[in-house]
Protein: Type III pantothenate kinase
Amino acid sequence: MTTKLLLDAGNSRIKAALLSSEYQLEPLFNYSYEELEAHPFVLPNNITETLLASVASQTNEAKIRAWLTEAMPIHHVSSETRAFGVTNSYQSPQNLGVDRWLAMIGAYTERQENTLIIDAGTAITVDWLAADGAHLGGWIVPGVSLMQESIVARAPRVFNDLDSAFGRVNELGNSTPDALLNGCANAFVGLVKQALSVSETELDWFDYRIIYLGGSLPLLPAELKRRGESRTDMVLQGLAKYATQAS
Ligand SMILES: Nc1ncnc2c1ncn2[C@@H]1O[C@H](COP(=O)(O)OP(=O)(O)O)[C@@H](O)[C@H]1O
Ligand SMILES: CC(C)(COP(=O)(O)O)[C@@H](O)C(=O)NCCC(=O)O
Ligand SMILES: [K+]
Structure:
């Protein structure tokens, strides 16, 4: 049985899945690039093709190529003007991050309805996809870790001695690290609420689908999460759609 390897290469982490000839998606791993280098995942030997969707740096893409030592063809997927019923709103469609493009393809393949997609990773992206497949536009915001790091880098009195910690939603801070971490966690939640508000007040969406993905999802409070679906596989689902037409 032949299998395709699907790779979603973000700026912090790489996610991999296998797609069987029956189009079953089987998640493989979600690694940082350091983990991929230190403990290269041993792939099954029946892979016939690799589909790569990357927004990563050249340095991190080189780590992927170093891992994929097998001489298997790599098909780079990019954002397009239109595909699988979804129309890109960018004047320069190639500029839209392919992770954003694929999450929309994945969502639209499942259900053709008004959809808000929030991908909270290195950056937080918000995209509005209408029921007719039109991408209406979106936002790019620094991700929670980036928010934390950027102020520590620029304001000498703002420090964070809590290693790889994240803040608490709806809580105040009474120390610099707590004020920083709680502030950034709450900024993320505020962004999500603003995206919902714009959907309802500006676009007149009432009954719409909300899809969340990305590493920062654990920060979202339960009442907000309940309003949507946590779908960290959505970029890989979009890639699977491309894999069904790739040679
Ligand atoms: N336990 C956690 N709680 C909250 N946020 C986290 C946690 N672990 C990682 N993150 C956040 O997730 C981000 C990575 O998410 P991911 O979606 O994999 O990013 P990318 O697609 O950009 O590679 C990190 O930058 C960090 O902000
Ligand atoms: C906005 C992003 C950096 C998000 O990347 P991620 O957080 O998933 O690593 C990525 O989608 C990207 O590089 N986009 C290109 C610019 C654009 O979408 O307009
Ligand atoms: K993202």
User: Anything to note?
Assistant: The two ends are 16 Å apart (CA to CA).
